[in-house]
Amino acid sequence: MQIFLNGKRAALLCIVALSWTILAARQTEPTHSLMPVPAQVRFTNGTFRLTESFTIVIRRTSTSRLEAGMQRALQRLAGRTGLFFSRPAVSQNQNADKPALSVMVKQPGEVKLGEDESYTLTVDARGILLAAQTDIGALRGVETLLQLLSADKDGYYFPCVRIVDEPRFPWRGLMIDAARHFMPVDVIKRNLDGMAAVKLNVLHWHLSDDQGFRVESIVYPKLHERGSDGMYYTQAQIREIVEYADERGIRVVPEFDVPGHTTALVYAYPELGSGPPPDGIERKWGVFDPVLNPANESTYEFLDRFIGEMATLFPDPYFHIGGDEVEHGGKVKHWDTNPEIQSFMKRNELENNKDLQRYFNERLLPIVKKHKRIMIGWDEILQDNMPKDIVIQSWRGRESMMQAARQGFQSILSSRYYIDLIQPTDYHYLNDSIPPDANFPPELQKMVLGGETTMWAEFVSWETVDSRIWPRTAAIAERFWSPQNVRDIDDMYRRLNVISLQLEEHGLTHEKNYEMMLRRLVNGNDVSALKTLVDVIEPVKGYNRNNLREHTSLSPLTRVIDAARPDARVARNFRTVVDRLLTNTPLDLQILAELRTQLTVWEQNHAVFEQLAERSPALREVLQLSDDLSAVARIGLAALSLVENEKQETDEWGKEQLELIKLARAPRGQVELMVLSAIEKLVYAASEVQPSGTKNK
Question: How far apart, in whole angstroms, are the C-alpha atoms of residue 14 and residue 20?
């Protein structure tokens, strides 16, 4: 009987998946699945057919970066098609007869802010021409070419097209926090490959915080010996990653947070702190008391030597000093209670802690400049009298970034790009460093360099970090690269499904690790019932995870909440299909049948999940959530029958069902159901109750 039930459920799931695929196919055929969308795209009739004789010739200027990039592109092309390309398939033979792809580059590029990344791409039936001012532009163009690869009954081909493309913003970044949870070298590399695929060009590498100092220092060895739990990057590994990024046209900007978020640093060198030394590196999450002592000249001597050493590892001219969250609750405890610091503030007419931090930054800035670096920091370093040659990274909001621009500072937006907060893709996608409705004159717009998405690492490990970065960051990358008017959410999601699978060829695990983590949770049992539940749940949003259950850096990151992904696709598709049912006239019976099939799967799932949880104790924290899904699915089925028969239940019935749905909103195991808003809509349609607004679940 158990085998029959599982088979029946699997069949139902297949019917739902097939139905939704057919439903999607009804829509207007897309012209392309490119992400980011190029500045100009014009398709023409015809195709260029791919064969095993495919060759690439680099004309005019060749560089090691360009040659390696074309070799990687060819390997990916072979991997996708299974074609055995002739060797050597990439050459600099200027007299080669009709290569499949000609790459024409005028000059080597520099991995620097503002480098020319433009390119043109022309595909016709005779061949492909990729032209760019720099080799970096050519790398951007070949990523577009790879995304154009298509297939039909006759094999693989590229559609004939003319593309003229350039980025909207010069600074298009991803911040990876390797301090709170260490990210091994292979994690950084595979994410660099993912960044290159969607034309991001800055890896902002957060390398120190209260929970760890992650870089080997020869000058101050206690930093990594005492401050890292043995998990840090050697200097050889740093150079390796910087070179790896350079080959892909990506800058690496290091961040070492000062004067706050320095528990690990002060534990290594307590004489630099402002208060009692910590007992060890911090294990919890939040803002903590240890801070550097701005009144101690040794602090600046330390920073001078340390920044000098790091400048030999990180060639990029930008150096991030953090500078955030020194104050918390309006206080800096170790500054406020240190008599020497208070006396220092009086002598120097520093009225408050903000003045003291400004003094620290004013002392730090010449040190950064001495080592030929440009200082960048979070909002908190934006204070009166600071020189205008620093860069402000805004996490507090777009207005803070625009204020910085008005005051003459270059700025970068990260507000609403915090991907660790588990917001849906469209939330980030519609966020813009310079929104269409902003009253922002062109001369100030030039001060906005671009944006960065931020992957803070309190709740991710090497197993899960990719699932929090991808595929949402691909959509954010489009916001940084593409014209401002590219804002169609439905089309974005369609293309995102395509790019998400393509990103796997770089070793990214956002798709692969999902079912791996589910298999581990069920201890070798059938994963179907768990997957049915996890497909429609998401981790709680914002900072609620730690509020609901306190975590430390040693807490397991292998639970259901860690397997669950942001912007659950099955739940999102269900919400979309419900909207389509309720807005189309006459009632679409095929859509109605699809929804009934899906709701039936959810209603029946709990009986199987209960049995699974008996054998897999880790699942018991979401047992009630599984029951909730079954209960609301029954409500949905009842409402669907009323809608189909054009009947309405009473106001009392509707309110009773909505109250049951409200109870199902409670998080269980720090995850929440994401289909409730759609089932609410069905209840509204089936009863006399009038909707008072919608929610995001």
Answer: 10
Rounded Cα–Cα distance for residues 659 and 464 (Å):
35
The average pLDDT across 588-600 equals 97
Q: Which residues of 517-530 are buried (b: 16+ CB within 10 A; e: fewer)?
A: bbbbbbeeebbbbb
Same domain? For 351 and 469 the reply is yes
Domain range for residue 85?
Answer: 40-165
One domain for residues 76 and 62: yes
Domain edge (last residue) among 165, 184, 208 = 165
Instruction: Indicate whether 460 belongs to any domain.
Output: yes
Q: Does residue 489 have a pLDDT over 60?
A: yes
What is the per-residue pLDDT across 539-563, written as a single tens digit (0 to 9) for each? 999 999 999 999 999 999 999 999 9
Give residues with Cβ within 8 angstroms of 252, minimum separation 6: 202, 203, 205, 241, 242, 245, 314, 316
* Residues identified as active-site: 325
Single-letter amino acid, residue 27: Q
State the CB neighbour count (10 A cutoff) for residue 197. Answer: 23
Report d(CA 176, CA 241) in Å as an integer.
Answer: 13
Is 629 part of a structural domain of the chain?
Answer: yes
At residue 442 the predicted structure's pLDDT band, cuts being 50, 70 and 90, is confident
User: Phi, psi (5° rounding) for residue 295?
Assistant: -90, -5
pLDDT band at residue 147 using 50, 70 and 90 as cut-offs: very high
**What is the rounded CA–CA span in Å between residue 461 and residue 556?**
9
Residue 164, classed as helix, strand or coil, is: strand
| Residue 102 falls inside a structural domain | yes
Q: How far apart are the first and last CA of the chain?
A: 35
- Pairing relationship of beta strands 155-165 and 40-49 according to DSSP bridges: antiparallel
Tell me, yes or no, whether 269 and 245 share the same domain: yes
**542 and 420, same structural domain?**
no
